[in-house]
Known about the structure:
It is a single chain. The chain is an alpha/beta fold. The chain folds into 2 domains: 2-117 and 299-343, 2-Layer Sandwich (Nucleotidyltransferase, domain 5), CATH 3.30.420.40; 133-294, Nucleotidyltransferase, domain 5 (2-Layer Sandwich). It has 12 helices and 10 strands. A hairpin with a 4-residue loop joins β2 (12-19) and β3. α5 packs antiparallel against α8, α6 packs across α8 (233-258) and α7 runs antiparallel to α8. The longest helix has 26 residues, at 233-258.
Amino acid sequence: MRVLGLEASCDETAAAVLDGHGRILVEAVLSQEMEHARFGGVVPEIAARAHLAALPALTARVLAKAGLEYSDLTAVAGTAGPGLIGGLIIGSGFAKGVAIARSIPFFAINHLEGHALTARLPGLLGQPPPAFPYLLLLLSGGHCQCVAVEGVGRYRRLGTTLDDAVGEAFDKAAKMLGLPWPGGPHLERLAALGDAKAVALPRPLLGRAGCDFSWSGLKTAVAQRIARGDARREDVAAGFQAAVAAVLADRAAHAFAMFPAATALVVAGGVAANGAVRAALAGAAATQGVPMLAPPLRLCTDNAVMIAWAAVERLGAGLPPDALDHAPRPRWPLEELLSQQSLN
Ligand code: KG4
Ligand code: ZN
C-alpha cells in the first residue's frame, strides 16, 4: 500500500507517502512563515495563493524522492477541514484530482483527527504506540482542546478554549514583549533568563470544573504589567509561561477526572515544544499514573504524515473512503466523525 497525504489547511504546505504499516517513505513540509511574518499572523488569501503555487511541485518532488510515480499510489488523503477554506479547497481538491486520475480511493481527512492519531504511528516514540482510549491535548496556534480519543473516528471533545488558542496567547504576549512572530519560541528563550516568581499573573479557570481554557484575562494582565513599566521583560515572559503551564496542568487533571479510562496523555501542537509546558503536563500525567507521550516536534506541528496516517488508520478500521463531491469544511468538530460513521 502507498498512501499520499496532503496538508494545506493553514500556513504549511505538506506532502508525505506512507506504506500500509505506517512507515514514512517520504515527507516534506514547506512553511509560509516568511510570507506572513511581516503581517504578524497568517493572512488567508496569501496562504491560499502560496499553497496553490507550491503544492503540485512539492507533491512531484516528494514522489520522485521516494522513487514513486502517481501510478504507484493506492490511496490519497487530503485535509478537508477544519481550517482556512482556500487552502482546504486546494489541498483536498488536488487530492481528489489524483484520486480521479488514478481511480484510487480518496479520504477527506479531518485535520484534528490527524493530530489525534499521530502518536500511534509505529516506531515513533521508542515504545509501543498508545492503545485506545487516551487523552489528547491539542495545543497549537489555532487549537486548544482536550479530546477523549476512544478509537479511530471516535472522538469526544471534553473542553476547548473560550477565547484564544494557547499558541495565539503565546504569540500575543510575545508581541507585547516586542518579540517577532510567531513568538512562542522567542518567548520561551526570554523566559529562561527571567524569574517566574517576580511577576505574579492570573491563572484563568484554575481549579474550575471541566477542562475549558481561557487566555484573554492573562493576556490583558500581561499588557497592564508591561504598561506599568516596573517589571523586567524576562520576568514577565517567565511569569506568563509559568501561568500557562500551571493552567494546562490543572486542565489536564480535570480532563482525566472526566475521562478516567485514559491510558496515556498525548500532547500535540506547536506549544508542545515548550519545556515548561511539557514538564507541567508530564507532572499531571504522572499524578494520574499514565505516561505522557509527545510525537517528535516535526509531527506535533502541521504536517502531511498525520493526514496519510489517518487514512491508513481509517482503512485499517474498515472505514470507507469519501465521495469525490465531499465539500471542505472550515469548521468541522471532531464529534461529527462519529455520527458520520454511524450513518455508514
Ligand atoms: O501547531 P503549530 O505549528 O501550528 C498551527 O497552529 O497551525 O503551532 C504554532 C504555535 C505558534 O503559536 C507558536 O508560537 C507556538 O505554537 N509555539 C510555541 C513554541 N514553539 C511553537 N509556544 C511556546 N513555546 C514554544 N517553544
Ligand atoms: Zn494543526
